[in-house]
Every structure is written in structure tokens, then in C-alpha cells.
Amino acid sequence: MRAFVFCLALLAPVSAHAAAENKAEPQTAAAAAAPAAAAATSAGLSLDTPIAEIAAAPAGKAVLETQLPGLLTHPAYETFKAFSLKALQPYSNGLITDERLAAVEAGLKAITPAG
Hints:
Blueprint (H helix, E strand, L loop, with lengths): L1 H8 L2 H10 L3 H19 L7 H6 L1 H10 L9 H4 L4 H4 L9 H14 L4
Helix pairs in contact: 5-8
């Protein structure tokens, strides 16, 4: 788990650069987060959904906390929360495995309303 935390910390420079270029964007993103999370929950959550949107749904947050403990409390969470789990996987140095993604996907499918 410590290796996972370390690997995600490597993403911090990317976030710092993006934040410097888009200083006004965090408020806009925060204001849009609630409606986007509601839409994601009704449309379904997947491995392609941004991590922040999954975490905004209580059941989605529970799946992430169970299958990827420490992800939501990671110091660099603000850096990677806009990534999907599929997009974050290559940066995890093998800690977000295909098996973990499959478990998250199964958990998300279990909470997604049939449509």
C-alpha cells in the first residue's frame, strides 16, 4: 500500500502545472461536481468515470474504499481525482491491477441502476 501511495505522489507535479495554468477552474469544477455526480449515478458508474464522480456517490465511494483502500485519502487525491481508474492504472506501478479493477467494476455494476 505504501508503494501505491508513493506512485500516486509522482502525479503531483502534473497537477501543480495544471493548477498554475487554470487558477479559476477549481471553483467551476466544484460548482459542476454535484450535478455531474448525480448524472453519473443515474447513468451508471464505470471504470471510465472520473474518480471524483465515483466518490461523490455514497455507494461508489464504498466500493473504492473497499477495493482500493487509501485512494480517496491520498495526499495527491486532488491531482488525480479527475482521472478514471483506467487512466490512473498505468501510473500506479502495478498497484492498480487488472484484478482490482475487475473487483471495482463488479462493485460499480452492482450499484448501478438497471436502465
